[in-house]
Amino acid sequence: MRVLVLYVDRDGDLKQAGIATPVVGRDNVLRLGIQYILRHPDDSDANAIFAAVKIYDSLEEKLGKGNVEVAVVCGSPDERMANLVVLDELGQVLTSFDADAIYFVSDGPSDEAAVMAIQTRRPVISVERVIVKQSRSVEETVSLIRYYLTKAVREPEYRRYTVGIPSFLLFLYALSIFINIQIISYILELGVLFLLFLLMMYGFGVYDFLKTILRKYEVTFAVSVVSLFAVTVYFILALSGYLGIRVPQSLSIQYNGLVPAVVLVVPIVSYAIEGFLRTQRISRSVFILAALVFSFFYFIMPPIVGAVGGSLDVRLFFEGVLLFSATTILGIIIALVLSRALPSVIK
Fold first, then answer.
1. On the chain, which terminus has fewer CB atoms closer than 10 Å, C or N?
2. Which residues span the domain enclosing 163?
3. Where is average pLDDT lowest: 15-19, 43-47, 243-247?
4. Mind telling me which residue stretches traverse the membrane in this protein (predicted)?
5. Is residue 139 part of a domain?
6. Can you say how many angstroms the Cα of residue 37 is from the centroid of all Cα atoms in its chain?
7. Closest to 279 (Cα-Cα) out of 184, 325, 344, 205
8. Is 16 part of any domain?
9. Which range (52-61, 84-93, 96-105, 314-323) has the least confidence?
């Protein structure tokens, strides 16, 4: 196997320092690293370049001379062009060393955004992120924090997120207080609640799970996240009295199984529509899953919610189970009938 150890400077810092890329070969890359670190001794790019040389030396011992090469390629400060420039320089490198696989080296997540583009040319067998160790003294820590805060505030790429969005939200909140419009405060509070919900999903792995399943269905992914948020808030408000949670009288609601049933079926419908637009086909399982979700929350959840309040209506529960089973069977029958009636659409 021929392996290319590739350091990618996706945002083009090396070019802005007047260094021409691509650079191929251990001696050339080592010379590049020394040249760059003399100009920018505080930049992590130089450390990552030296790390690429070290990885090259390690792989050469295992795979043999001639089976490993090291190279440095650059992208562009323009986010829209960065990956295209990286691929163009990678093509030049592969002309001189036709690798079977690439060992990707970077100094942070921004450079790793080029991995997917590079995989269109050669498989990436490993990704090595070089973390630069910093001094633990208070002075160095303060200096480092000040450096990154200045970068976050001044650079247009980050300024819109660190300054623009927070300032806009605070402006809306202050405006709502000044002109006494309560609805704006509610919207902002709901936005903060949704953000915390996203962080909670990310922390427990639900966000990654949904993203993995719905990788090709971006609209359905967004609809699923919003639906889960709406249902979670709805259940908390509906069960607040039973759980001892105090909420304003205006937000106190009685549980109605139709609301979560419909809200949770919406992502399934979105998945069916988005899938049909992509493949011109609809899976039979969509109808069965919709029947399962709708009937569970519409027929079975109401007696369970009543049980949380301390009174389980056994008759209502068994009726719900029977209706749930009947609706599920009906969903299966509908799926089978449609697959026979519309074989070119329903599979």
1. N
2. 134-180
3. 243-247
4. 161-181, 187-207, 219-243, 255-273, 285-305, 317-338
5. yes
6. 34
7. 344
8. yes
9. 314-323
